[in-house]
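Structure in, sequence out. Go:
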């Protein structure tokens, strides 16, 4: 199967054929917009959607007079379901870490024991229950009355779907003998039989069927008209809780029993297990029952039963340490590889995407899959070891697809016996398909990247999409689709983030211009400008994350923002660190060369002089700036180099400076101030801790607003020293740092 460019055949099309095709493209794209924006039930993959859009644009360019009144190029998104108010969750809604094998579960249990300082044979019980494949919902009851229902959203802020939740029969509207405040969390789902009946009704009404029960449940819950939700049979299983004015129980299983007594459906397959073997046995039983359950599940969730231990274990950035989702194995299927497309991402990475002959994998039609990178296609991993025994993947090959849950399908194998005789090894492009710039690979990196930076339209657009995403600027009414529209617009273009904030000022007729376009009414334009203005004031961490700098994700952005507080402080240090970042990179390269040379000569390389030489001429203020950056808890050399080099790139820097000039960047407060005596202090732990573990002590200290450092310096306020403390205690004593033992520490934080 050859890959065809969506524009290849256009010169030979008749006007009639082009007009017919434009009509069907308008139908298909507009329907996909509605499904995506209004019904929350995407009917096309992003790649397929993009392909239709590209084809439509190419046809319109070739036949400008055939452009239709309902042309999808003029539409900004669909009928966005923006009628829901936002609700900030009193307690964040977390997701779960995943496990796939019994070994992962043994590791999970061992990790918990290590964190809590429990021996391998100390009793430790877990609950095990099905992982429901629906969407999570938080129900808030006050004085027994259901007052609010919110979707998960990004975990911090969800959508207010109270009116819809009130129509779900298995959600009680009144509770008796419940705590005064009680947030019940669980999963809204649709049963298989109800899903089949709903799809039959959809088809009878000439509407598109839903792809699976989960999309149907999501689409039904997120209806602006609650009468529609009421007509859709949804159910709810309670499995967790948020804010509670008094504890539900002392154990997870007790709390679930209490929720059941209050009138909630809880899953009957929930069990308490005392060993990892018992967890796996229960998993096997649930897996065996899976097909007969009547609703979709995608794994089994294990939770530490003792709630006091759950509290001690706490959370990572978005997942609890005390729970894990043991997912069912991925579903598989064989199909033929029709072509390979290259997508260019925000940081310039060229990602190969497999175009497949459509095949059903676990109930979902798959026509695209990721091929990871150049080496993966060639059958080797980045260190040169063979994958798939070295078998490469060629266009025309039969390949095995697998997908687990809602992750992007992947290719796991290729069948050489069915390879077409004319199949050629795949030539990975060395020029960016979007801007023609050289695409290069750094040493040791399996990813090839476009070097075009902001001149590359694909990178610029992806950066913009990231910029407006939820965890970044999250501008109401300006999502990925709208940004794409403005990106291609000739009169009022948005090509860089700063353009968003100059949109209105650039042209005082902007409002009138926009109002005349499909998808934009007078009020929506007004609302858009207001939403943009609201985001001129932005916390430093969000701004940093929004810049989309490689390796600078949400966590690193928060770490940097907490440390520097203000934008100017950060920029000063990042700029000053320039020569040091270059030295660091030069030192890495020189070290690698020295290692290789030594290995050839069969000798041990002496690396210190090599590194020292690279650093020899770095001015002291650059070294100090570098030390400050890399000394921030959570920030290593990789993040630091990426930040510094991004700020050094002229076009990139100009774009950032233009943006910041439009904004009022809010300082981020240093670690949460609690009234604990350790708040704001820098603490070092050393020696053996006997009553908690190092990890737990660190997490507790941070939760109380302290900063935990790895080594003692003049900035250290307190050293907690257990038995066996060595050089750190000596150094602390020399520096006059206060030293206490573990008992004193526990008394200090009020947990004695
Ligand atoms: S517990 C703090 N239990 O899975 C832990 N989640 O992949 C909260 N889910 O966002 C989640 N069944 O929407 C939990 N029995 C179950 C679940 C479950 C389904 C969903 C939930 C969560 C997602 C994480």
């Amino acid at each position: 199967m050859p890959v065809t460019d969506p524009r290849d055949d256009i010169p030979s099309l008749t006007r009639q054929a082009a007009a017919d095709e434009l009509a069907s493209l308008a139908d298909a794209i507009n329907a996909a917009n509605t499904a995506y924006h209004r019904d929350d039930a995407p009917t096309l993959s992003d790649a397929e959607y993009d392909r239709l859009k590209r084809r439509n644009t190419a046809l319109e360019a070739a036949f400008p007079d055939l452009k239709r009144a309902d042309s999808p190029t003029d539409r900004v998104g669909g009928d966005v379901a923006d009628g829901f108010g936002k609700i900030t969750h009193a307690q964040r809604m977390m997701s779960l870490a995943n496990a796939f094998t019994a070994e992962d579960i043994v590791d999970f249990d061992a990790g918990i024991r290590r964190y809590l300082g429990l021996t391998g044979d100390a009793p430790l019980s877990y609950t095990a229950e099905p992982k429901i494949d629906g969407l999570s919902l938080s129900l808030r009851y006050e004085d027994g009355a259901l007052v609010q229902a919110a979707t998960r959203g990004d975990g911090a802020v969800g959508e207010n779907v109270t009116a819809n939740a009130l129509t779900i029969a298995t959600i009680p509207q009144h509770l008796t003998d419940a705590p005064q405040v009680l947030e019940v969390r669980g999963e809204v789902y649709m049963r298989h039989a109800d899903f089949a009946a709903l799809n039959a009704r959809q088809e009878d009404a000439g509407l598109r069927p839903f792809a699976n029960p989960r999309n149907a449940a999501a689409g039904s819950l997120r209806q602006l008209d609650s009468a529609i939700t009421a007509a859709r049979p949804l159910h709810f299983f309670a499995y967790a809780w948020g804010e509670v004015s008094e504890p539900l129980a002392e154990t997870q299983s007790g709390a679930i029993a209490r929720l059941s007594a209050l009138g909630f459906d809880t899953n009957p397959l929930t069990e308490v297990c005392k060993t990892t073997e018992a967890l796996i046995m229960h998993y096997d039983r649930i897996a065996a029952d899976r097909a007969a359950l009547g609703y979709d599940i995608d794994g089994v969730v294990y939770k530490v039963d003792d709630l006091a231990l759950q509290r001690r274990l706490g959370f990572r950035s978005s997942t609890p340490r005390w729970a894990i989702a043991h997912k069912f194995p991925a579903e598989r299927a064989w199909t033929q590889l029709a072509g390979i497309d290259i997508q260019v991402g925000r940081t310039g990475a060229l990602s190969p995407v497999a175009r497949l002959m459509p095949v059903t994998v676990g109930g979902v039609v798959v026509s695209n899959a990721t091929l990871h990178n150049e080496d993966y296609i060639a059958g080797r991993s980045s260190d040169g070891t063979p994958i798939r025994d070295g078998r490469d993947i060629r266009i025309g090959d039969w390949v095995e697809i697998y997908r687990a849950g809602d992750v992007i399908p992947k290719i796991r194998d290729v069948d050489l016996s069915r390879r077409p005789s004319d199949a050629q090894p795949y030539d990975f492009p060395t020029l960016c398909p979007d801007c023609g710039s050289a695409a290069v690979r750094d040493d040791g990196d399996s990813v090839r990247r476009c070097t075009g930076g902001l001149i590359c339209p694909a990178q610029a657009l992806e950066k913009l999409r990231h910029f407006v995403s939820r965890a970044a600027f999250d501008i109401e009414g300006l999502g990925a689709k709208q940004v794409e529209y403005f990106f291609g617009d000739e009169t009022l273009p948005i090509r860089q983030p700063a353009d968003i904030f100059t949109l209105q000022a650039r042209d005082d007729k902007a409002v009138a211009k926009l109002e005349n376009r499909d998808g934009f009414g007078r009020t929506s334009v007004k609302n858009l400008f207001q939403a943009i203005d609201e985001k001129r004031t932005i916390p430093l961490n969000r701004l940093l994350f929004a810049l989309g700098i490689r390796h600078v994700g949400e966590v690193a952005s928060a770490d940097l923002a907490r440390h520097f507080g203000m934008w100017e402080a950060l920029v000063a240090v990042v700029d000053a660190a320039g020569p040091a970042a270059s030295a660091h990179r030069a030192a890495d390269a020189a070290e690698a060369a020295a290692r290789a040379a030594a290995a050839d000569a069969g000798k041990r390389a002496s690396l210190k002089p090599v590194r020292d030489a690279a650093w020899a001429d770095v001015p002291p203020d650059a070294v100090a700036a570098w030390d400050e950056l890399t000394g921030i808890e959570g920030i290593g050399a990789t993040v630091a180099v990426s930040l510094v080099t991004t700020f050094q790139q002229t076009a990139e820097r100009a774009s950032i400076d233009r943006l910041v000039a439009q904004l009022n960047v809010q300082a981020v407060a240093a670690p949460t101030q609690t009234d604990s005596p350790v708040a704001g202090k820098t603490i070092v732990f050393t020696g053996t801790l006997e009553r908690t573990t190092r990890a737990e002590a660190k997490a507790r200290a941070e939760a109380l607003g302290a900063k935990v450092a790895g080594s003692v310096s003049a900035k250290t306020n307190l050293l907690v020293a257990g038995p066996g403390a060595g050089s750190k205690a000596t150094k602390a004593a020399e520096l006059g740092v206060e030293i206490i033992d573990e008992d004193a520490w526990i008394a200090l934080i009020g947990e004695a």
